[in-house]
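Obj: model holo form, ligand = 4-O-methyl-beta-D-glucopyranuronic acid.
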Amino acid sequence: MNKYAFTLLLVLFSSAVISFSLPVHGEDGYRLWLRYDRVNNPVRLQQYRTLISCYEMGTYSSVLSAARDELVSGLEGLLGRTLSQVYPEQSGIGERCILAGTPASSAPVRYLHLEKELAAAGSEGYIIRSITLKGRQGIVITANTDIGVLYGVFHFLRLLQTQQSIQQLTIQDRPSLSYRVLNHWDNLNRTVERGYAGESIWNWWTLPAYMDQRYKDYARANASIGINGTVLNNVNASPLMLTADYLEKAAALAGLFRSYGIKVYLSVRFSAPIEIGGLKTADPLDPEVQQWWRQKADEIYRIIPDFGGFLVKANSEGQPGPQNYGRTHADGANLLADALAPHQGIVIWRAFVYSETPDDRAKQAYNEFKPLDGKFKANVLVQVKNGPIDFQPREPFHPLFGAMPQTPLMMEFQLTQEYLGFSTHLVYLAPLFKECLDADTYTKGKGSTVAATITGMAGVANIGNDRNWCGHPFAQANWYAFGRLAWGGSAAAAPEAASRNVPALSSAQIAEEWIRQTFTNDPAVVDTIKEMMLASREITVDYMTPLGLHHIMGYNHHYGPAPWYDKASRADWNPVYFHKADMAGIGFDRTATGSNALEQYAPEARRQWEDSTTCPDAWLLWWHHVSWSHRMLSGRTLWEELCHKYYTGVDSVRRMQSAWNTLRWKIDPERWEQVQMLLTIQANEAVWWRNACLLYFQTFSRMSLPAGGELPDHDLKYYEGLHFYYAPGTGVTGLEKN
Ligand code: GCW
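Output (holo structure tokens):
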């Protein structure tokens, strides 16, 4: 073989190797918002390359080595070149180095004397600064703790990923809430209650020996947005979770997550002492039961020394609880709190309770919990859903916020879109979260926002083992937004936030950050996507549950519209219970003439809703039963407005489709195509919601659909007759009908 033929062969061979070693999945969404592709803006790239040429780390702990790995892989990807590690002398740094560490772990950081700034950073905050030390320029990322350094590293990488200037940095940040926790509703058989992104990411079968790469990437993603806790299993909990075998598995995850500042928590079943402990009772006042929980807690802390604590759903939707023994929620929570207290663990006790009584379901949690304020042990937090019913597309804030001043409260938001189109609808939830967090409870006078009444935030996870984690490429944004809002969504949140020197994050800012990191920094594309995202929640409200309607979806699986449904065994599981449509009108009267749920709010809060002639249209049917010809604030009659909303909702989804179509060649083909297909589903389902709901409500209003509007392509009977086998998220066998 001559020299040229040999060279040719070599070239062919190496290109074959290169093409085989390219990632099999193009842009498949797996990397979430941590893509670290080379910066494609030449001016920025130049700046970054000029300012960064090496790095120095404080002496390693496992957290600092996670920080170093992230910093190096992130910077090398973004800058497109390798960085050298420099080992600094006592008081110096390498030229153009990133210096990361705490004063305790790094001599040059100590030499900078940032004590004053660090005093304000708390135990999780950080400082990022441009510095000059002995004539050498660099950037320092420092904190009081190793985890603060890791958070700082992620912040720094975000600056580069979103192509911000890194000249003259003077950043100081810290979280506004102490507990920022994901709640997985994952079962031990890997089904996920209300999960629409495949199976559970926890492979309980192969744990603890096999540690999937996903577990680490999950931890990285969470740490990058400041999430510091995860509840691994469903609140409808299996008692098996507390057996030695499963605790081993949880311990393996905890061991990995520890390097990312994430504590593991477990949901527990209140009757576990009976089911796995062989006791006759789970009565919280029984000494044997108390001892059983104490021993269980000791056992857990022996293998998970930094275990976070327990999350409990008790006496709710059939779950056992203290009331089975005539005891209160406080008795139940305190039982577990006492067991965890010696280990600094906490109990997160859910307030999502309602029973089969004639009383308005919206009032029950408040009635149950408000009198218990002051009765909980110090390590109990009460976790309250954002609204008084159940994660609907729009609800007023829960009346418990601000009503239990002696009890720390956790906010519970739902990231998984149980009631907002599963993972086939594009719905960006930050505006829903912000609407609640920014609402004024007036419980301590004007400006007592919901955010100011909480100590932590829980998000019901939307994560599964789908390649892109969340099913819909845009559902990732809800995970991202949850973390960012728990970190910095409320300037006013107590008490640490007072020392944050940055304003509260807005939905738009969070969307922009996410788009730039996840899709592209091209400003025109960012704007188009951002506009879609910001409008999407209101659009969904319009085509699903406008004007304060709620809970009118399919029974059990909660898929699609079923406002007619009235066959559930309990009244308050039926859509008809919630909309109360009749010949006279529609809506739930929760004023003094009705259930008077209004009285659970402070007078100033009440005032905005209590009069049907001044109540904002968006909330009207939540609070009032009004006639079909009621005059809305918009000037239309109720029936006209209802039609208008449903029709506008559909039109707006179609506008989202057109907007997306303009991005055909501007983002990667894989995700473009996925979203395009999903938007088609969303558009079809919006039409379905509109037609089914309007045809049904029309049987009461007896008024006509808008002249010239699209006519329903089926009659009401057809919509009523639809049923769905294998709708995801219920864990049912497929034979059950809706
Ligand atoms: O929204 C309802 C869901 C249930 C869920 C319950 C809860 C985990 O339909 O699937 O159960 O809320 O929050 O406990």
